[in-house]
Specification:
The strands form six sheets. This protein has a nine-stranded mixed beta sheet. The chain has an eight-stranded parallel beta sheet with strand order 4-5-6-9-10-11-12-13. It has a five-stranded antiparallel beta sheet with strand order 25-26-29-27-28, with helices on one face. The chain is built from 17 helices and 29 strands. It is α/β, with parallel strands linked by helices and 760 residues long.
């Protein structure tokens, strides 16, 4: 078959001052787009055209129960695309589909199903948000399923090429179905497809049964009979961490590396098939949050480096979908995605109200109860996305979502703000960067993956409120030639427990130009190696420049600040608590059965505990809990203790139990915070002491670049004092009122209201 030749409407991704943008025949597309999935109300969809939307994501689900033939499905998809394109001659479509495996397929090939018990597969299906069956559950490890994914990718390309003007479809979107977002959420511990691949993995790594049995501490274990190492995964032997120097740790890390590679293969199957046939199409996939999915591991670095992936899409933070108190933020490593010239499409997951309430005020917790509250939410998220260069759509599974007339003027205004902003060609202004280590996740079992949980909580509640913009990266990104090293003044390492040589090289590169490096709990404690324990406090000293003592046992890391001769100590003050305090989770039930009581305070703990033992440091805070003894052989049996340590040290600070400290180096500053959650107030003080410009210092959300500033009132109304990096012309983006050429100004902001300003 000859390759299709695009005649016009050529899509491309080009960076503008470091931010990748979509262009079609040289014309840049708007930031705000529309996504259609559950209805065919074209009169309603036309309203989005009228408010300036140019890009439509479009999906129709193929029912897996045999009620529709592929011929009928293809015709239905073709008609919907044509109807959407008929809305306006200057809009474009990215065609999505759900990988749909039929019930008949799983019955004919049960080995392609997910087996959670040895008797047979789980015969079930996934029902998506519009209550439509999308697929029978299937194994993520099946080669036959991958072939079906390739087949369905080509079916949809056939649909595109049968259109009157195929070139108005500029991309393909792979979603759902189990390969991208909606994982089967079981271990597949007995799936024939999984076991086959797992045995191949073990054979490649260990070569012989004898080597495997010795490595796993299981005499008589053979590669052919090896099962998912459930006991090893569930029972770490070094606090909450897996140590490859122990049999359990070796088996557990092997499993996660194996599973990650297989997930990668499944994720890339669809985009690769489409890209090989139609390299002119933009290809990407929908995924769950790349920061805190405790049920699976995505090899994020390999995804964003893949030539088959142009964009990644996922939901915003969805901690509390029906209230305004939870900030709707980017729940992924967006700066990392942009660095690699990929796009991030954010789906705002606040679900529609069945009825638009007539209530005039919100409840005390900021509950969304009427259309005006949605306008606040739309404004908050859209201003954030415009500033950060993030494409985004709104969850539109039910047409009453935008039923009220008040939405359309706001959407039109936001499109106008976006257009003006893009003309100004803004540059990123973040002077703070947050780093995570992808491979550290392989060294923690699912149930207490507290660092991952806290990464997501940190993105909800702390970094967004510290008063300055920040960017989130994979740690190895520092070595990328386009990484903005000169712009970054402060670096936070929040999930960097086990670091390889490249990651450590990245940290060393940051130790210059008087930067401040802030290391969270156990940063650098682990260093992968072939034999023996990978954990040593000396590894942390090499990374942070601070000496530590490792203590056995579990601690809820609540700390009290100390007085000290350092600007951070002066700004923050003494006698203040931070760390694990009772604000971490609002939910009353755990997210899933695997997390259980570890899902919320006070059970998000640290183990082992590392205490600062360095006379050259300035103590910043001490643990307000009894410490367990230093490790030795007789104490090792206590290392997995679930006994919580009761705070009794409120008035007894001891340098032995210092959990946070500052150390000034030759041309950089090292800060250790021995917790996995730090309140915004302390982060704000660290930034201010590190010469990072803060726009506000009251906990409001700030989104800023060189040409725009957005401030969202967090939960109280009042006059805000807003500071700019330099004197510049400020214009209210909504009223077009010129405030003046100023370095500081005041703004009256209501609770949950977002004010947006053009700069320059």
């Amino acid at each position: 078959m000859p390759k299709y030749q695009r005649k016009h409407f050529t899509p491309e991704i080009k960076k503008i001052n470091g931010i990748p943008r979509i262009f079609v025949d040289g014309v840049e597309l708007p930031t705000i787009l529309y996504r259609n999935r559950a209805h065919e109300d074209y009169k309603y969809m036309k309203k989005f055209v009228d408010t300036g939307h140019k890009l439509y994501f479009m999906t129709r689900i193929m029912p897996p129960d045999g009620s529709m033939s592929w011929e009928a499905y293809c015709e239905a998809v073709r008609k919907r695309i044509c109807a959407v394109l008929d809305l306006s001659p200057d809009i474009f479509v990215i065609l999505g589909y759900y990988l749909s495996i039929s019930d008949a397929h799983i019955k004919e090939h049960p080995e392609d199903g997910p087996w959670d018990n040895p008797e047979g597969p789980e015969i079930d299906y996934h029902v998506e948000a519009a209550r439509v069956r999308e697929t029978a559950l299937f194994s993520l490890y099946s080669d036959r399923i991958k072939e079906e994914q390739k087949k369905q990718a080509n079916i949809h390309i056939d649909i595109i090429e049968s259109l009157p003007d195929p070139d108005r479809v500029i991309g393909m979107f792979f979603e759902g179905g189990g390969a991208q977002e909606w994982y089967n959420f079981n271990s597949e511990r007995y799936s024939p497809a999984m076991l086959k691949k797992y045995h191949e993995f073990l054979m490649k790594r260990y070569k012989t049964d004898e080597t495997l049995a010795k490595s796993y501490g299981k005499p008589g274990l053979t590669i052919e009979k090896a099962l998912m190492p459930e006991e090893a995964i569930a029972n770490p032997q070094r606090g909450w961490l897996q140590d490859t120097g122990t049999p359990n740790g070796r088996a557990s890390v092997d499993w996660y590396e194996f599973a990650a590679q297989e997930h990668l293969d499944m994720i890339l199957t669809g985009p690769a098939a489409a890209k090989k046939r139609r390299p002119d199409l933009l290809t990407g996939f929908f995924c769950e949050h790349l920061l805190d999915c405790e049920h699976f591991i995505d090899p994020f670095k390999k995804v964003i480096e893949s030539p088959y992936v142009d964009f990644i899409s996922g939901p915003s933070t969805t901690e509390a979908n029906h209230d305004l108190t939870t900030s709707k933020l980017s729940h992924s490593l967006v700066a990392s995605i942009h660095l690699h010239n990929k796009l991030w499409f954010q789906e705002e997951d606040t679900p529609p109200m069945e009825k638009e309430s007539l209530r005039e005020i919100m409840t005390s917790i900021g509950e969304i109860t009427k259309p005006e509250h949605y306008v606040d939410l739309i404004t908050h998220v859209s201003c954030k996305n415009i500033v950060e260069g993030i494409y985004a759509w709104w969850w539109d599974f039910q047409k009453q979502w935008f039923k009220s007339k008040i939405y359309w003027p706001r959407l039109k205004k936001l499109q106008a703000i976006d257009k003006k902003h893009r003309v100004l060609k803004p540059k990123p202004a973040a002077e703070a960067a947050v780093f995570v280590s992808e491979q550290s996740e392989y060294y923690m079992p699912n149930w207490p993956r507290n660092t991952t949980l806290v990464v997501s909580q940190t993105m909800y509640y702390t970094f967004p409120r510290m008063g300055a913009p920040y960017e989130v990266y994979n740690l190895e990104d520092v070595l990328h030639p386009d990484f903005p090293l000169d712009r970054i003044k402060t670096a936070f390492f929040i999930d960097c427990i086990v670091l390889n040589e490249k990651e450590r090289e990245a940290v060393e590169k940051l130790k210059s130009k008087n930067r401040t490096l802030v290391f969270y709990w156990a940063s650098g404690l682990g260093k992968p190696k072939e034999n023996g324990s990978i954990y040593d406090a000396g590894n942390m000293k090499a990374l942070t420049g601070i000496n530590f003592l490792e203590r056995t046992g579990q601690c809820t890391p609540t700390m009290m600040s100390l007085p000290g001769e350092h600007k951070i100590c002066e700004l923050y003050g003494s006698g203040r608590f931070f760390g694990m305090v009772n604000e971490l989770r609002k939910g009353k039930t755990p997210r899933n059965k695997n997390m259980g009581k570890f899902d919320y305070f006070p059970f998000v703990c640290i183990n082992p505990v590392l205490t600062v033992d360095d006379p050259q440091t300035i103590p910043l805070a001490y643990y307000v809990a009894e410490m367990l003894p230093l490790p030795d052989e007789k104490n090792r049996n206590r290392i997995d203790s679930l006994e919580l340590l009761i705070p009794t040290q409120f008035n007894k600070p001891s340098p032995t139990f210092v959990g946070a400290a500052i150390k000034e180096m030759k041309n950089w500053t090292s800060i250790y915070l021995g917790t996995n959650y730090v309140q915004w107030e302390l982060l704000n003080c660290i930034l201010r002491a590190s010469s990072v410009h803060t726009y506000v210092d009251n906990g409001d959300l700030v989104f800023a670049n060189s040409r725009m500033l957005a401030v969202r009132g967090y939960n109280s109304a009042g006059i805000r004092n807003i500071s700019l990096p330099g004197k510049i012309k400020v214009v209210d983006a909504f009223s077009n009122k010129t405030i003046g050429k100023v370095k500081e100004f005041k703004a009256n902001i209501k609770a949950f209201e977002t004010k947006c300003f053009h700069l320059g």
